[in-house]
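Below: protein 1.
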Amino acid sequence: MDAPTRTHDAPAVAQPPTAVVPEWVHGLFPWRAVVLPWLLSRALSAVVVAVAGSSDGRLRFGGFFAWDGGWYEHIARFGYGAPPPDGVQTPWPFFPLLPGIVRGFDELGIPGRGATVLLNHLVFLVALAGVYRLARRHTSAPASALAVWAIALFPGSFVFSMLYPSAIFLAGSVWAFLLVEDRHDVAASVLVVVVAMARPNGLVVAVALVFAVRSLPRAVLVAGPAVVAVGVWCALCWHWTGDPVVFFTAKSSWGEVTLGNLLFPIADYGAIVHFALGVSALAAVVAERRRLPAPWLVLTGVYLLPPLVLGVIGLGRYTNECFPPFVAFGNLLARLPAQLRALLLTASAAGLVGCAIAVLRHDFVP
């Protein structure tokens, strides 16, 4: 009798592994270009802010809520209060979006200020993803990745880890430009409203986007809702205080350092740092102006030039909220040798550490 024939199982067909991360997420948050600089920069910022804001040998977390964060928290708890008396600093210069978020978390039973700081970190990740995607459309892949590193490690970027609206402003503005390029004007208009309610000068994004759309109907659609939102806020301010632009007039009590008194009679070293950061960003944009879209130049000009002249304090922070200079930095860095690029980014990270310590330990204004 013949031996039984052994039957061999057909070889199994290799199945592709199930993707742990959806493809659209992977495309939105590339690891090396976006997630890695976000992780490293936020870890560095968080450590420095926590340590610099601590005292008595005990780790404290008040540094995350320092400076303007205290005003936003006050508004979330108590509102804006009575009309501001002359010469007294009040909450009125601050717009309502961020305190509204803090209050919203509190109403849900979640500690509002801590939750908002964590939200800022996530929003900053979304902002960096937008910077990379938008830069990738207008420049090379290496330059786009370097733009992300430049904005993540810029000396003022520690503020993205604090109770400030900077991350919201950056994310809203960069994604509004992306959506306008893709002709998603309604979605862009929503983001412009968010930006306009985050900062008193948020309407400059609407102005720049008008130059981007080059069409009256599209301009009305993209910028109109933000103008209406700010108009409603002005009407409320008028009803409450008798001054529709109280957020502007109240700033006179804050002792601005202008370009005219930057050095004399007594040098304000914090203001000089702000001035230097703003000028470096403007210089990069001027150097790369032929490689950047014209609406980006408009955004840079209308956002950075007025404080450069009228109120230097805060200019370093405003610079970090404005994406075009960092695309310019990315272009410039991409043309340098790798060792020099690494050295410059390391120096910028050291500047981040130094600025955070100066703000939280030595009373420099961020």
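Below: protein 2.
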Amino acid sequence: MKLRGSVRFVIAGLGCAALLGSCREPTEITLQVHTNLPCKKDSGNWYGVAVYVGKPGAALEHAAPTLETDACEPNGRIGSLVVVPSGSKSEELGVRVVAGLSRKPDDCAAKGYQGCIVARRALRFTPHTPLDLDIALDADCVDVGCDPTHTCLTGGCVGSEQVEHPDPEDVREPSVRCGDNGVRCGLTGKVCCLSVDTDAQTTHGECRYPETCPSDSAVLNCDDDSDCPPESDYSYPGLCMLVYDNKNGVLQDPGRASGSQCRFAANTSTQSSAGLALCENRLSCASGWFVCKESKGMPNPLPGYHWCEWTL
């Protein structure tokens, strides 16, 4: 792969007609890099960004940086970079973009990406077709390193060649994280239908109408209490309660999860004084009453999600 920079020069007066129709679209991929974190230089929590390009896979983890910069605009835009193939016009391209928050980006891999954000992509060039590749360095991916063939998306790891986005018509604000494959679904209509592989400790989701979701899947109608309005009659905060079969009669020891629903402190989904409330926004539940923690369990019925242990 070769880099051409993000500034393009045009020679005036030279058009396709003058070349008898031989003018074709370039074979190139433009990386558009941005972040939703504060990225002010010399702030003590921004050491800049390193971009690595090459063949996808483990070797890219040990490559020298192709480009390093501490530039970042107030709106979070870091910049763009054009990559063109050095051989075949359909060759593979691997991209690794690392932001250093507490250390230099080139030191992040050796530290397991703690204090860093890493975004990976694996794709191919398309002959005579320019492509834009969005690289988001998001706050919910801090410290989430994944492995060399995966990238962080909404706090979980997905295949770096399969960063999926839902149909915009299926997503409303707020929305629900639906599995490790990067799908987000709305709160009504087509909601999150989540398949759980407890052996591999992974999840895979899709947006479907609840009645079409397989019986062995979980239907998530919410993933944190920001999805749930307060209960007007009592002014209790709304809670996104996990619906599950408890093990050995212990309400905070979950077995198979069948979904999640908005409930309130006066009326929990477990019809008891204890349960589990999802907190995928990583914030405490019930306006600070209960601490959000990473979900536990052997095997974990909802791997990759977070919850609060709720008691009345």
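Confidence is low (pLDDT under 50) at residues 1-22, 164-172, 267-272.
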